[in-house]
Design brief:
heterodimer; A: 2 domains; 77% helix; B: 513 residues; alpha/beta; Rossmann fold; 3 domains; 26% strand
Chain lengths: 348, 513
């Protein structure tokens, strides 16, 4: 039975993706585009040459981290809608350290990365604290925290880090995740070392959740607070800790953008959507670290490849439709499960 | 003789197990037919087959002599089969009438609901069977016993001729149980037929005509209740002789282990529920706390175990002050606690049963080292406890949720006793369990006593208190009002003490009787 479940666990997302692509093809046909050309353009947009591959990996990197952030909270019974805000404060904090600290790389870079993670963790701490002590639902607080993050970050960029400019200067080279070697390898794409941090973070999440007493407690509290208290666990501490760790992962996603891709921080007029996409990544990846990596790859490829689709006359918005359809099928995986069971029975 | 329902040679398999194997149940018109079996014997599976939730692999079902194929609950409803579920399926903010007509609303003009007509109809049905239900009352405002009657009304309103009751008394007070029995009698008097799923022998003896016994998925046979007795039924159910009177040597109490002095505990509304309680429990004795639910027993346990802070007073465990310590420190000081609500407090139901076995010790060696869990040690320990305490589970990796109540409780008891606590608190340890499990749990409690541990038993079942305790402390209105020996008292006297009489009054009136 368990092997059956595992098989379903893998089949359902794969079928969802295929269905999404098929429905996407139909939409292209209906709207008068050639789906084969459209998908070839999508493929080329993501994998045409070393440069596009580099850019695709760069796009995947923060998605892995926000996916992990959401998945981690989910696994411990919390819904962290605040990854978006945690990305923004992580980005800001990392760049800030990157700008103002003067130190050799071996100190400067880790310090900046850590600052981003801590800032994200702090942004998770506040809703965690309110949930643990006052019972305020984390969804409401984290949504509000997203707006606070965006406007506070904008104000700091304008008034503290610059003199009324819309973006800061580039960070010191000693705080950069950029790599000339990786850039040379990919025809000067913006690929940076961050992907290693993201992959390592996935291992960290797996280790914490599955292998440590911390994960044992966090999951227990998520499943059953009363039994956890009875067993001598500190329920409040665990709720807060879960939000802090989740926030730190999201903060690291911001670090990727701040120290890797852009090297600065700008005034933003809307959300980065990294945090919100992370919800979909976590869902598609079944809240499992390896699944999150695979889901982030899929999302990154689709988003990066979409940039090339207009060359085949297909609007980029179509990719958003395909992504939405994939999420729809995953979310309604019951239908696919039902169909699979049915299929299996008749096959007997 | 005509049968309204016949289930002949039913077989139902699930991957890995045969839940029902060749079971035959024949229900006569106008009888109350018990379906007796231990937890996990396959009673509910069989009824779910009848109700169309499962399809049997073999065997046939006949309704009034005609073979039928029940593929979903709607067909069962159409055939006049109604189920009163153990867990009620009611919409709390709705009225009784609204709940009953849900799904088969009587339509008035322009698609409106003719609620007055429905109310009248429900009132009539209620009167006919003596249910005394107010059709206009809200579900959230009526008692659990009344809610159950609404469930009964629901099936009657839909024209049920055959009613299946799934462990109906598990949630009821003794008074409500008595009333339910009357209702069942009046139902059969009006020509309905009843299947009663239960593992309580007392109920079968009291109200049933015939009884079909199921053991480990096998149909053992059907007996006439009036020709049988509880001992025979119990041994049919369990497959061996059952001891109702718990065997034990006289207690040999030694030093005081638990000492409680002038304890006050408040509930969430800041009302004192434990009011100046004093209690000693010695090593090598079982002290039973008798009392009606709601006299501060839960708050007392929560205060001892650290789940609630006490307002004032002092609790010591082996002369160590544990007043208002955290649950973890109380546990470390030598407390084992079998909680009253095993689903809420005792287990993390979504964790494997194996992971639940280290719920208080996961952070200690050998189960973890520098915060890294050692799964091999954890599951080896779990395997050992599962074997020793006869926890029936497919494996140690099975989610605790999937185990039957009795096996969940055995797992908790194994876990708590394995830590060799100085004091073992058992709160309602046998609630909802069958005789086999009850016997096992009682013998374990006595075994702990004989090892020289102190045991504090809290139970609302007088039988259990009388049988197991060496000393009975009667709790009333937040205080211990009397200490009596089980062999020197009787249920009559205890009942009066629990209702607040003093020991002299209680002694006098029970003497007169």
């Amino acid at each position: 039975m368990t092997s059956n479940n595992r098989l379903f666990g893998i089949l359902v997302p794969i079928i969802s993706v295929l269905l999404g692509l098929i429905v996407g093809a139909f939409i292209m046909v209906i709207s008068g585009h050639n789906p084969i050309e459209g998908y070839i353009a999508l493929w080329n947009g993501a994998f045409y040459d070393a440069f596009t591959i580099g850019e695709t990996i760069r796009r995947i990197t923060p998605l892995i981290l926000t996916g992990l952030a959401i998945a981690f909270a989910f696994r411990t019974g919390l819904f962290n809608i605040g990854a978006e805000g945690q990305v923004i404060v992580g980005w800001l904090a990392a760049v800030w350290i990157g700008l103002v600290v003067d130190a050799p790389m071996i100190i400067h870079l880790p310090l900046a990365v850590l600052a981003g993670a801590l800032a994200g963790g702090l942004w998770g701490f506040i809703p965690g604290l309110l949930k643990a002590k006052l019972g305020v639902h984390e969804v409401i607080v984290t949504i509000m925290m997203n707006y606070i993050a965006m406007f506070v970050s904008n104000e700091i960029v304008r008034s503290v880090l610059t003199d009324h400019n819309t973006s800061t200067e580039k960070i010191a080279a000693t705080a950069s995740l950029g790599s000339e070697w990786l850039q040379a390898l990919t025809f000067y794409s913006r690929l940076h070392y961050g992907i290693l941090i993201a992959l390592f973070a996935a291992v960290v999440m797996w280790f914490i959740i599955d292998r440590t007493t911390v994960g044992y407690e966090l999951k227990a509290v998520g499943f059953n607070r009363h039994a956890s208290k009875y067993a001598g666990m500190n329920v409040s501490k665990n709720i807060i800790l879960s939000m802090v760790i989740s926030g730190a992962f999201a903060g690291l996603a911001g670090v990727m953008e701040g120290l890797g891709t852009y090297g600065n921080v700008s005034v933003i007029s809307g959300f980065t959507n990294l945090g919100f996409d992370g919800i979909a990544v976590a869902l598609l990846g079944a809240n499992n670290p390896l699944g999150v990596i695979l889901a982030a790859i899929l999302f990154g490829v689709l988003k990066e490849g979409a940039g090339e689709m207009p060359s085949a006359g297909v609007p980029t918005e179509l990719v958003d439709i395909i992504i939405a359809i994939i999420i729809f099928f995953v979310a309604s995986s019951y239908i696919i499960r039902w169909a699979l069971t049915r299929f299996k029975k008749e096959g007997k | 003789m005509e049968y309204v329902i016949e289930m002949l040679n039913i077989r139902k398999e699930f991957p890995g197990i045969v839940a029902n194997d060749n079971i035959t149940v024949q229900l006569k018109k106008g009888e109350i037919h018990a379906l007796l079996g231990e937890n996990g014997a396959g009673k509910s599976t069989l009824m779910n087959v009848l109700f169309g939730l499962y399809q049997p692999e073999a065997g046939e079902i006949r309704v009034k002599g005609e073979k039928v194929n029940i593929t979903n609950p709607n067909i069962a409803n159409d055939l006049g089969i109604g189920m009163v579920h153990q867990h009620f399926m009611l919409v709390e903010p709705f009225t009784v009438t609204q709940n009953i007509i849900l799904g088969s609303e009587p339509k008035g003009a322009f698609g409106s609901i003719n609620i007055k007509k429905a109310e009248k109809e429900i009132q009539e049905i209620s009167d006919r069977y003596g249910l005394k239900v107010d059709p206009t009352a809200k579900i959230s405002e009526i008692s659990v016993g009344m809610q159950q009657r609404v469930e009964i009304l629901k099936t009657l309103y839909r024209g049920a001729e055959v009613l299946i009751f799934d462990e109906p008394t598990a949630v009821l007070t003794p008074q409500e149980i008595h009333e339910l029995m009357d209702i069942m009698r009046s139902l059969v008097r009006e020509g309905k037929s009843i299947i009663l799923i239960t593992h309580k022998l007392k109920e079968i003896m009291e109200v049933c005509d015939r009884c079909t016994v199921i053991r480990k998925g096998q149909g053992i046979g059907t007996v006439e209740v009036k020709d049988s007795n509880p001992d025979e039924l119990a041994s049919l159910m369990v497959g061996r002789e059952v001891n109702f009177k718990t065997e034990k040597k006289p207690a040999n109490p030694k030093e005081v282990v638990l000492h409680i002095e002038n304890l006050f505990v408040q509930d969430a509304r800041k009302v004192d529920l434990v009011k100046g309680l004093n209690l000693d429990v010695r090593a090598g004795e079982i002290v039973g706390i008798a009392g009606v639910d709601g006299n501060g027993q839960s708050e007392l346990i929560e205060a001892i175990t650290g789940l609630t802070k006490s307002r004032s007073g002092k609790i010591t465990l082996k002369e160590k002050n544990i007043t208002n310590m955290s649950p973890r420190n109380v546990t470390k000081s030598g407390l084992g606690h079998i909680p009253q609500d095993r689903h809420k407090y005792g287990l993390v139901l979504d964790y494997p049963i194996g992971a639940n076995m280290v719920l208080q010790t996961y952070y200690q060696k050998p189960y973890s080292k520098v915060s890294v869990l050692n799964y091999k040690e954890i599951y080896d320990k779990a395997k050992e406890l599962i074997k020793e305490y006869d926890v029936r589970t497919p494996s140690e990796f099975t989610p605790a949720r999937a185990l039957s109540g009795g096996n969940q409780q055995k797992a908790i008891i194994g876990r708590e006793i394995d830590r060799s606590p100085e004091l073992l608190i058992a709160a309602q340890p046998t609630r909802g369990l069958d005789v086999g499990a009850i016997e096992f749990i009682h013998s374990k409690l006595i075994e702990e006593r004989d090892k020289g541990r102190a045991v504090l038993l809290v139970s609302f079942e007088l039988d259990e208190i009388m049988n197991v305790s060496d000393r009975i402390a009667v709790m009333f209105d937040g205080k211990i009002v009397a200490n009596v020996k089980p062999e020197e008292t009787n249920e009559q006297e205890l009942g009066l003490l629990m209702a607040g009489s003093t020991i002299n009054e209680a002694g006098d009136s029970s003497d007169v009787k």
